[in-house]
Amino acid sequence: MKVFLIAFVKLGKKGRLLGIAHLVDSFGSDVDPITAVMKHDEADRKTIDGAKEIMRSENPDLFVVQLIGTDQIGHSRGVLYDDYIEKIEEADRLVEEFVEFLQEEGYMKNTTFIVCADHGQADGIGGHGHLDEGERFVPFIMHGPDIVKGKKVEEKRSLVSLASTIAFLLGAPFPDHAKGPVLTEAFKRKDQNEHE
Q1: Among 103-107, 111-115, 153-157, whose mean pLDDT is lowest?
Q2: Residue 27: helix, strand or coil by DSSP?
Q3: 71 vs 67: CA distance, rounded Å
Q4: What number of other Cβ atoms are within 10 A of residue 157's Cβ?
């Protein structure tokens, strides 16, 4: 993502990344780090509050926001406990709150909004080995002027498609080592855009 942000800046666009400090420290000055050393119920709330402030003050062309609560519970407790579902539901509420904020403030008109996970979780406590099918594939939820409304894509995709898809949407050069295909199956055809 660091190389992508640099290429993005060279196009004259502004990108920001808001995430947990130990995961984003190497990304440089386009990053707003948040410490994860706090009660587990506070990190995502503080992230969404920070995301609202960044939108108000900077309104970047590309904004990556990282929530951490579901990931932390998945790694420490696994997926077989109620707290995992509770964290997913909490993240859903916070994403909904952020989208409502974006709509109320007028930011959503020409925005493509993508929600995805950094990895899936296998049965039990998840890892980062990505050997299990449950870890390799992630959900992508996309909304925007170029996205087909209500379309469900059955083909499984992994996180490696995210950078290519963002680059495609923004007209930016693909990252040097991009491996994932662009998620074009979710996009409207050009003639669909012209009729809507």
Answers
A1: 153-157
A2: helix
A3: 8
A4: 20
